[in-house]
Structures are given as C-alpha cells and as structure tokens.
Amino acid sequence: LTQAGGQILGTLVSGWLANRVSTKMGYNNIVMGTHLLSMVITPLYIIFGCSNQPIYGHEGRNGIQLNMTDTCECRGTKNLISCGDDGLNYLSPCYAGCQSVTDNVFTQCSGLTEFNNMNLTSGLCATDCHGNFILYVALHAVQNTLMSMSTIPMRLLIL
Length: 159
Known about the structure:
Shape: rod-shaped
Largest sheet: 6 strands, mixed
Distance between the termini: 31 Å
Helix content: 40-55%
Number of helices: 4
Mean pLDDT: 79
C-alpha cells in the first residue's frame, strides 16, 4: 500500500510540478531535489528501525544441540520459530528437544539446558517495537512519494 500509494501520489505531483516548470534546468532541479530529499530519509531507517531479535538454537549456540530430532517426534518437519517462556526466540521446538505439543504449545523441552522443561509457543516473541514499525512504514511511504515525484520531469529531460 505504501509503495503503490506513494507511486500514484508522487506521479500526480510530478505531473503538476512539470506543468509549472518548462525549462530543462527546472526539470533537473526537481529531479535532483526530490532525490536529495529521499536520500535524507534513508538514515532515519537506522535511527527508528527495529533490531532483529536473535534466534537461539541455530548452529548450536547457547548450549542447545544442533538438532535433537532423535529425542522428539519432529522428523521431516520444517523449522518453526517459537517463543519460549523466557521471552527468547528458538529456531524450532525440535531443536529444543520438546516432547509433546497441545494447541501450538510445545512442552517438556529438555534441550534447553538453563530452563529445563520450558514451554514454547509457535511464532516470534512479542516486541516493544510496534511504534517504530509504524514510523518506518510512514517514512517508507514518504520516500516512495518523493522518489516518484521525479518521474515525469526525468522523462521530459530524456525527451
């Protein structure tokens, strides 16, 4: 939605701007100005972005064996990132050695050395990054709009 909406709005504004300016220098100023403003937004993604949550169990980190499929009934299943009772994400209930499952809650996870018999639920753990995500989406929409505001002046320069 942000991509398509930004493209549509930017192209409409681009046509309006190109109609107001009729010189090559004016078109060039629009193209350079919109690209420069768009580049100014890029570092804001780093400032307001959310950091990736670590996923434990991959490559045997944090005391979890690389694969414990011999102790649980997970043969042939795909990785299912799961959230533990400790608030950490795990690669799969199979990698955590979980023995049983009921309603997407995996129990008796013996592979977690520090938290014996911890429960896992399927899906990523909740984060406090919801506000930053909304800001990220808004910045993305503004950047797409700015980039597409140069579309028509750029085509007129080419012609």
